[in-house]
Specification:
By secondary structure, the protein is an all-alpha fold. Helices cover 74% and strands 3% of the residues.
């Protein structure tokens, strides 16, 4: 999922970079208004967990790779704006420390995994809760559905960026990305369900905290 440098053209880099910088700026302002003492350690734990989970990569055609994302877990446990900050921090650290994803492509990678995946998960989770209710059943179904959809949406965004940049035709890169991420999305959904179930069983109060 991490796009390296050299695959996106200047227009795509500039557009995704501007969108990511603007969204991250809004997220920081939202967090400054709502962030409390209880949310800070949770954000740190989520960042560490997602950082570790994303280090396991699977090579995919078209110059990118596949892995778990973690956006849905952020959305459910702490909210979408905090999720944007967590995902951005993880992607920035991975880019600078491990060269996982290009520095010039950092805006695109944040856009795909830190914005598209986060808000895609947020919309699907809210829709699912609205249909099945906010009880345990609704939360578990929402976690599974949002986890899978968030991965697929991020893969779609990366495929579009590679295609419009001329790196790989959409008809080649999207089937390659989708084929891998259909399975990765199932894994993402299962892991999210497992963590949310554990939180519901032991620390349900975390899910009652204000979302950011």
């Amino acid at each position: 999922m991490h796009i390296p440098d050299g695959f996106l053209n200047a227009a795509t880099l500039a557009t995704t970079g501007a969108a990511s910088a603007g969204t991250l700026g809004v997220a920081v302002k939202m967090a400054a208004k709502k962030l409390g003492e209880k949310q800070v350690p949770l954000m740190g734990i989520l960042a560490a967990f997602i950082f570790a989970a994303q280090m396991l990569n699977f090579p995919v055609a078209g110059g990118t790779s596949g892995h778990l994302i973690g956006a849905t877990l952020c959305v459910i446990l702490i909210g979408p704006w905090a999720g944007v900050i967590i995902m951005s921090a993880v992607l920035i650290a991975q880019s600078f420390i491990f060269q996982d994803g290009g520095l010039l492509a950092l805006g695109a990678n944040i856009f795909n995994m830190g914005i598209v995946a986060v808000f895609g998960a947020f919309v699907i989770y809210k829709l699912t809760i609205g249909i099945f209710g906010s009880n345990r059943r609704g939360q578990i179904i929402g976690a599974a559905a949002a986890g899978w959809v968030s991965v697929m949406l991020a893969a779609l965004a990366a495929s579009i960026e590679l295609a419009v940049s001329g790196a790989s035709p959409f008809g080649i890169v999207f089937p390659a990305m989708a084929g891998v991420h259909v399975l990765i999305g199932i894994g993402e959904g299962l892991i999210t369900v497992f963590v949310v179930s554990a939180v519901l069983a032991s620390r349900a109060d975390i899910l009652q905290m204000e979302r950011i």
